[in-house]
Adenylosuccinate lyase (Vanrija humicola), 479 residues
Amino acid sequence: MDSYQTPLSSRYASKEMSKLFSNATRFGTWRKLWLNLAIAEKELGLPISDEAIEQMKAHLDLDEAQMKVAAEEEKKRRHDVMAHVHTFGTVAPAAAGIIHLGATSCYVTDNADLIFLRDGLDILIPKLAVVISRLSAFAKQYRDLPTLGFTHFQPAQLTTVGKRATLWIQELLWDLRNLERARNDLGFRGVKGTTGTQGSFLQLFDGDHEKVKALDKRVTELFGFPYAYPVTGQTYSRKIDADVLAPLASFGASIHKMATDIRLLANLKEVEEPFEKDQIGSSAMAYKRNPMRSERACSLARHLFAIYQNTLMTSSVQWFERTLDDSANRRVTLPEAFLTADILLTTMQNITEGLVVYPKVIRRRINQELPFMATENIIMAIVKAGGDRQECHEKIRVLSHQAGAVVKEQGGDNDLIERVKQDEYFKPIWGQLDTLLDPSTFVGRAPEQVDEFIAEWVEPALKPYAEALKNVKAAELSV
């Protein structure tokens, strides 16, 4: 290949998302917009023939010859929409005189973009439900496996592997809610004319305001939108783009946090992403198992954050009824945001379908820290056996510092419990030490929280996607 192609479509993204933002889909959608405009205008009394409508219906998809004609026309006319008006007319000659009747370019470009935003969300939302479902199964499987909790990435009280996963799931549930809201809130630009006044359509219908309103409503209905934005300039407000890409960027933040956690856990050798049999972790270090999927997710999530900033800047500089400095930016921004989110979802589905947990490594790390965490339990046990709290506290403090020195200064294992077992002061509770050091007694309600969270929050949220979840294939990661 001797020309640049975006890796988003050529290397990573799904076929359905790449197709949605393809030229074939874009220009075919323009033709559908011209068809439905003509249908609505005919229904409202404009002299448009049945032959014109039928010819338009028969040529909604562009073949290679049509794409070539349109490209040549655009070179001559320096206007993509008018190039396609002319090209459509060559295969629908009976409609050539009424294609685009009363409309401005933004009738097709803006309405098409709103269709792509809606359809793009329809692709993403079920995929997000799949990731949540996969991760929920993981949380249930490890609901009660104790693991060392971290605050400030320093050892803290125990949690469970499943409970930690619910932290990721909860954020993804919020993302699901936000994407659903954005999708359901989308309107249509509809039929608004050159500066949004519908002046050209008022002229077409001889000043009949009700017919102009009916035209706007009918075209909106034909494309399945619940409503049209009540007022626009030449374009729909670019704030809509920001409203759609904001939840995508927020989703990216959730993925970045989760993928970073997995990368850190991989370093600890407690949890790993899938690693294929013939996969190579490093060209130089054959032993390595780099978390490349999670690294890819973090990398693309940052790109998604950056894309969102474009929508804010573009929205803020739209002068009066419109300015064209949004056009080139949006041609890149909108497809890339959806392609990137799509890639993130495929990647995370692949990761969550094959997460590997190493319980023995987890237990070893717990054993290194649990003796310190168990000191309060030991103190309470001594008090119950008739000892003095303050005296016990001082003895535990001294032994803890000695054990800490072995760990930090000598690089040895935590031997606090061995020191307790050798100190006659603690003899009354030696028989209780195994119970006092049982990790499952340090996780609080973590297992129950997993059960309750999935039953009360996850399952209701996934219920609308039950059919979609039944036959989902395992995600195959692209190169």
The mean pLDDT is 92.
